[in-house]
Amino acid sequence: MLILGVDPGVIFTGYGIIDADGKEVRVVDYGILEFGREFELPDRLDSVYRGITRICTSSRPDALALEDVFFNKNARTALTVGHVRGAVILAALHHGLDVFTYTPLQIKQTVTGYGRANKAQVQRMVQISLKLKVLPQPDHAADALAAALCHYFSDRPLRGAKEGKEQ
Q1: Rounded Cα distance, 19 and 33, in Å
Q2: CATH number of the CATH domain containing 36
Q3: Is residue 160 part of a domain?
Q4: FRET partner for 113 with CA separation of 20 to 30 A, picked from 29, 121, 122, 153?
């Protein structure tokens, strides 16, 4: 099963694809989609949608593991990240992916064993879990790989009924 993990962001959106065959899990690809600060929100959302579409077309993942929005002191930032999540979900659904969301706490707890792990701890556990020679960089990509690993480790089944698309 190919799992696409996504860490949505206003300027950078991280993505990571893992291949989990039941016995082993390995990295297929990871990186970031970057949008300049000079672009307006509709253009950024279009870039996110196109980027995720390109990834889905080339890699053909089975599921999307998406980091949920956490409470942010800046309501505008939280709202914008919510829009980015919407573009990611729409692209995934257009490619027939099952969509699963996880809170940052769930991802950290699952990947590191500690729900309040810092970025460096998450990166290190992603590196160990995926047998990478170097720490995954940038941290947005590492967070996306962590979301994919969270889905893999949580062993949630793929969609069975139509109403279960976003779980």
Answers
A1: 20
A2: 3.30.420.10
A3: no
A4: 29
